[in-house]
Amino acid sequence: MGKDLGIALIGAGFIGSVHARCVQENPRTHISSIYDVDRATADHLAARHAARTADSLEEAIAQADAVIIGTPADTHGDIARLCIRHTTPFMCEKPLDTDIDSAMLTARMAREANVFAGMGLNRRFDDHYRLLHQAVENGNLGNLELILMTSRTQSLPKLEYVAKSGGQLRDKGAHWFDLVCWLTDDRPAQIYVQGACLIDKRFADHGDVDTAVISMEMGRGAFCQMNFSRRTAYGYDERIEIAGSEGMMQASPPIPVNVALYRGETITTRGVHQNWYPRVQNTYPAQLDSFVDALAGNGDFPTLIDGLVAEIIAAAGNRSLKENRPIPIAYDRIEELET
Q1: Structural domain of residue 261, as residue ranges?
Q2: Are 172 and 109 in the same domain?
Q3: Based on the structure, what is the number of domains in the chain?
Q4: Does an H or E element contain 255, and which?
Q5: Which distant-in-sequence residues (6+ apart) come within 8 Å of 262 by Cβ?
Q6: pLDDT digits (tens, 9 = 90+) for 39-68
């Protein structure tokens, strides 16, 4: 078939390099150009993939068949709106914008211009979680009753990152709020969050927490509990358990080297992934494949509405954390986009 679809990569940092490798290795795509405000960084990534560096953001978008936005979060909205003005389809890393009002504007613009716009919610493309989704969809677990989710990062982010991240519930939580909606085909109706700085008190200077427990009541009555931590002493840890009237299914942290030493009365196994990227790296090629399929009118890809739902849940969660009480969640603001 050839590498027909030309994709412009906006952002040449770490996540940009991940997308570049996926686009270059996919038999249906090629890199049309790479753009970054830091020209040297863009040139370096382009040289690694024998690709071209765009002289401007406008040029990169105008000459591409599609765009992947992998820049800092506070630039996403402006780039997405420029894609829409050029009627160039795009996939944007979360969040879509710095606030819900701006994200709503972008989603409305994309709809009115009939531009395909997807969100990079890559956890949906994890093999383990797709099996969970299939089991729920097929009714293998019966009526859902309990969902338990864990996300614990191996090491603390830099404080400069925390200051711009939008807080743990937006930064980390967006993936997990989207996951619970996708896995259950439901949305939480209420959220209660407790959190604290148990690891680094300086997070509080940025209005953030490093440890949180989230309790949610889903629209159809199931309960979901999440626990987040920004540091472990044993590696990167994420897991999901779903229990229903007919059974239970778990997705436990995979062991990268699955060997065990049996000695005396003990069994010693290798640990979990020591960093987040090796744990999720296989989701990115799968995500790109799904994006290309969606551009051709096939399959199902996370939309801007999915990103907005995660943002609405995170905003309610932040309010709950601040007010120390359960907060009902309303989705009426996005109803016009769903019709």
Answers
A1: 124-283+306-338
A2: no
A3: 2
A4: none
A5: none
A6: 999 999 999 999 999 999 999 999 999 999
